[in-house]
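User: quick one - fold this with pyridoxine-5'-phosphate bound?
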Amino acid sequence: MIKLGVNVDHVATLRQARQAHEPDPVAAALLAELAGADGITVHLRGDRRHIQERDLRLLRELVATRLNLEMAPTSEMLRIAVKIRPDTSTLVPERSEEVTTEGGLNLLKSAGEVKYAIEKLHKAGISVSLFVDPESKQIKQAASLGAQLVELNTSAYAEVVPLGLNEDHADFKRELAKIREAAALAHALGLRVLAGHGLTYRNVGPICKVPYITELNIGHNICARSVLVGMERAVREMLDAMHSTTP
Ligand code: PXP
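Assistant: Sure. Structure tokens for the protein plus pyridoxine-5'-phosphate:
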């Protein structure tokens, strides 16, 4: 069965909005595991806009499934990864002005930097996944640089199905075909294939049927839904707290 890695970055986004202690992404990660998540993913960004090093340290201690650290291949992040030792590091491009990761790595341009990062992480016993667009030249380069895993960027696919699925639509067919072809090529080259970015309750179905994809990383949509499905209970609990103290 296809596995689910839950990205809890946006629990931390909510916490950082108030520079407060709650909600704690570590608590959210443990609840995600209780619900059956196969792994926990966090992206430690250079600007620390959501996940903090404290979160990473606690997650390393407490996550019982697998911890995947998304990171840019910078010397700062390599130093942190080697110290914390996540099970996997997913290398992503990072720009401080971006709202979220905007695309896959350009492995043709950044080959030297990525190869160095892969070697350093492998030496520390950390598996390396490369986040790439579903393009054959990127997949081939990922294999030749020595990565063990690739995560196919599904954001172009997700953009063509923003609200509903129309499986007959030409754009949908084109984007899904790109992912299917990229997954088959990656598998043929001996890479384990993951996928993620922009996946939602509505658009995840067809991706789960793509042969060779073994795991998805999903964050924003799960965090968004958890706010809504939890709202009713949260308000009831506040009313209970208010009324139980009223004489
Ligand atoms: N995979 C990668 C490489 C990402 O950068 C992100 C976003 O942090 C995700 C998956 C999860 O994307 P989303 O939050 O849209 O589900």
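One thing worth noting: Strands lie at 3-7, 39-43, 67-71, 88-91, 127-132, 149-153, 192-196, 213-218.
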